[in-house]
Amino acid sequence: MLTPNQHLLIFTDLDGSLLDHDSYSWRAAQPWLDRLAAAQTPLIIATSKTAAEVAPLRQRLGLQQQPFIAENGAQTVFPAGWREAPLHAGATYPEICAILAALRERTGFAFQGFADADDARVAEWTGLSPAEAHLARRRAGSEPLRWSGTDEQLAAFRTLLALHDLRLTQGGRFHHVMSRQVSKGEAARRLVKRLQHRRRRPLTTLALGDGPNDISLLQACDLAVLIRGRQAKPLALPGEFPGRLYRTRRQGPQGWSEGLDHFLSNGGSDHE
């Protein structure tokens, strides 16, 4: 049976997974966080949040010695002890915002991004405090959007973005625009190679997530926990997933803990 250990690498989404979608609390997951810390099992955040948002949160979660993936893979940040600069993938934030402004002027599509709002408006959209919203607006390589157009316009918007080598992915609250080659999964693969080289041995990988923007992350790992989300239609991993998949019955940090119970306490191996 798989148990928490130093050679197990766990990637986790935040909002709607480790963190409650509404309250941002991780209280229900704290027993597992303590257990992973005691076993020195690396827990790596992979989120749509910015590096500025994750830094203080990582401290409160006791994960400051671990790297993390921000902005859906646009940035990978390493612990201070590694003495490595953050990795940036894809287009820069000013480049993305310039393209979005030009497309909106050309098409008249109704959407708003964080660049179009101040801290107070982003706080209203997210439920964050104004100070936290300010950190959410310190972006490097992705832009969250509130889409107000039709589904047909959204499909056309995706096509136009692709012409600029950009793509749209859906998170728990927003659509996110980023470079086409950027994803949580690609960032996780790069990070696993880096860690395996540092440790000089293979690592078993497990990922937990609840949204469409987590699919690439789940596909990149050996074990995947698809946490029950708020989508009307259950998510599915496209194609053949060679690993082991577990779908939780509960949401948020309760579902997060359920997934770890399945793989690390019960030795579960069935696809559900």
From TrEMBL:
GO terms for biological process: mannosylglycerate biosynthetic process. It comes from Serratia ficaria. Its EC number is 3.1.3.70. Transmembrane segments: none annotated. It is an enzyme of class 3 (hydrolase). GO terms for cellular component: cytosol. GO terms for molecular function: magnesium ion binding; mannosyl-3-phosphoglycerate phosphatase activity. The keyword Metal-binding applies. Residues 251-272 are annotated as: Disordered. This is Putative mannosyl-3-phosphoglycerate phosphatase. Gene3D superfamilies: HAD superfamily/HAD-like (3.40.50.1000), Putative mannosyl-3-phosphoglycerate phosphatase, domain 2 (3.30.980.20). Pfam families: Hydrolase_3. Keywords: Hydrolase, Magnesium, Metal-binding. Signal peptide: none annotated. InterPro entries: HAD-like_sf, HAD-SF-IIB-MPGP, HAD-SF_hydro_IIB, HAD_sf.
